[in-house]
Amino acid sequence: MAKEAAEAAAKQQEVAYQARLLQMQTEETELAKTRQLQQLRTRAEPARKAILEGVMPHLAEAMLAVVQRRPDDPVAYLAMLLEQKAAAVAEGHKLVRCVSQDAECVCSLRLGGLIWGGR
């Protein structure tokens, strides 16, 4: 009887140990995921900022023109407007090369900010 009780207690301890081990592994995995997500966000921030400041205003303006004019081929019209805007930006701004850790892009400097030119 005492032997069975000892075996049952040992089995309970093993189950509890395995449960704690699983919980610790789960917490470590979640922590690693959180760190990885933060690293991705940090690495993506320069591109995000460049897109928000340099692309979105032009894209929003061009898309508004598409909505207002309702051309037969909205995609071609949007592309034409964006190409025209890109040419105007390239002519009016000094192009420089920016290199980040993960990507390279051609950028344009202007007063008050950066215009992303892509690459």
**Adjacency order of strands in the biggest sheet:** 1-2-3
Mind describing the biggest β-sheet?
Answer: 3 strands, antiparallel
Class from helix and strand fractions? alpha+beta
Low-confidence stretches: 94-119
Helical segment count: 2
Radius of gyration: 28 Å
Task: Domain count, please report it.
Answer: 1
Distance between the termini: 77 Å
Note the run of SSEs as H and E.
HHEEE
Approximate helicity band: over 70%
Total number of strands:
3
Report mean pLDDT, rounded to a whole number.
Answer: 80
So what's the overall shape?
Answer: rod-shaped
The portion of residues forming beta strands comes to 5-15%
Give the key terms.
2 helices, disordered C terminus, 119 residues, alpha+beta
